[in-house]
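Page 37, top half.
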Amino acid sequence: MFGAGVVIAMGAGLVACSSGSGAGSASASVTFIGGGGQLQEAQTKAYFSPFEKAKSGIKVVQDTGSTNPAKLVAAIQAGNVGWDLADVNADFGTGDQQKLLQPFDCAVVECPSGESETYRLPLHAYASVLAYNPSKVSGEPSNWADFFDVKKFPGKRALLKEAGPSGIFEAALLADGVPADTLYPLDVDRALKKLGTIKNSIVWATSPTQTADLVAGGVAVMGNVFSGQAYAQVKNGGDIKVAWDGMGLGVDYLVIPKGAPHVANANKLAAYMTDAATNADLAKIYPVGPGNPKARVDKTTATFDFLPTPDKSSHQYTLNGAWYASNYSTLTTKFQRWLQQ
């Protein structure tokens, strides 16, 4: 599934997928940590394998788990960082968290306009959407109010068990009548109260990939999933459809953890992944929009119908990463307390 010449972290060791003479020396490598699943497989095809060919001698080593910010923070604070470049959600790397990061070299990467120093590079855009299994529901759910209507649409709901910007709190508030343009600051208590109305019908997922798996496999009749995961299911024959109304638009970013062993190589890989000429290559095989505003996606590409374009929804919002970063501790405490009730 992964490209030739790539080394993948699996369990406690590293397994080389290359059929060549080896992974090379540590100084000639760069370790990337991503969210895993089919997104990271697509990143391998779009970025890592071509990068290795373009930057002869630099091998890409991979790990997963970057969607859990606690994992990154713990390693950085312990001074035990094994990663050079991380793909993170919008709720990580702003404000005080910048002290946990190494700034990018703007002489190597294309920093955002007007910035002489940056700690985050926009990588790709995605959407949090309502996905459902058409063979398991009678009718077509079209919005978050339908998601919370277990009488009209009986069955389990799949949600990601994380207090991060996955869209579950926003979905609850939209279903409870909050306008999309006034969601933030989130009324967490109100969102949890609304989620409580379907708590017995929730199947919790531990990853975005599993959330989509639960819906496509019929374990849940619908779920809050990322559009890219829905596309991956459809491509592989999964029984899943998307309702775009009330979608949440988000952005993933690249960051360099402080203490990264190969900062120079991290900048080189980041430059390749975010360059206007190559950034949209991922969108050709996986439905996320490019993070570089100069990158363009051809409308004839197979993924275009699943790309998070504004015309797909009249009631959309932007996932507010800064709010999540500022309120992460409080949100996590309330969410965990609610789960245990």
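Page 37, bottom half:
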Amino acid sequence: MKVLHVLYSKIYTGAEKVAAQIIKAFEGRVDMAYCSLECEEVWEILDGMGIRHYGVEELTPATLSRVIREYQPDVIHAHDMRTSFVAALCCGKIPLISHIHNNAYDARGLSAKSIAYLLAGFRAKHIFWVSNSSYEGYVFHRLFAKKSSVLYNIIDAKRIFAMRDSDGNTYDFDMIYLGRLTYQKDPQRLMRLSAALKERKPDIKVAVVGAGELEEETKALCRELDLQDNVHFLGFQSNPIKMVADSKAIILTSRWEGTPMCALEAMALGTPVVSTPSDGMKDLIENGVDGYLSDEDVVLAEDILKIVENPDHRRLLSENAAKKFAKINDEQKYNDTILACYRQWGGTL
């Protein structure tokens, strides 16, 4: 069996990590390939993982059709709504599996995106949603109830620990942000929160790992708030895992989420998570037990300071987070679910 994973991106964060992780999980059993927009940084990561990849300048029915003709997959696994729509236009008789990674704000009501995804939803043989909120948030979700299932993200824990151990550096950040600098992730809020923290702790050290269309705007706000000595923009990092492990806390300021891979990675490493209560985060974090959730910057700042300034409290949150991760991160069940879907629609291995 051959499975083509398709993504409409030139970054390597949440959905991209999920696709690569699935490919690696079935290495030697299922022939899989990765297709996305051209990006040398992503290709370097995939080459290091031994993953076959196809790049296109723009993901359109024409460019994806060329990849399909070359690779000849038995199943197309499309990640997120836009990609699923493009794949639906050119998959022909090839079974399409759609995988939705977040509760997109622009698909919660009548919109071009929500209407376009109707085509993908009807063409798809099965739809995976990464959280209940991502499923229920889509305005037309009831139309696809019989072909939908919630599949919470997991991570390859052994690989995460190996990535941590491969980095011999030591980092000294109080708080780390790991993700794209986009509207969804609200990096401007991160800057305002960092300014509030600086008022209480003038030497607070914040790492920002990632890039995106709001990078320059976020940096400008950083300068405006006089945070240049506190906030460190590190750009895209192919292996930021040791940075997460060494940080006292990881912060998520997202407007909406699915089940963030960076939060799972932090929990595995015992780094407490502080986040806005966005969608899947409410399923992942128990407030005050293994992390913190709040939609108020004042409260978020207070919670971060509790972690940064109280080692015993930080240790307790860390232990609880690691215990929860061990309980919820069922790699075998996840892989069995994916494989059963492939077998149902793509035939025998």
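Margin note: The chain has 15 helices and 13 strands.
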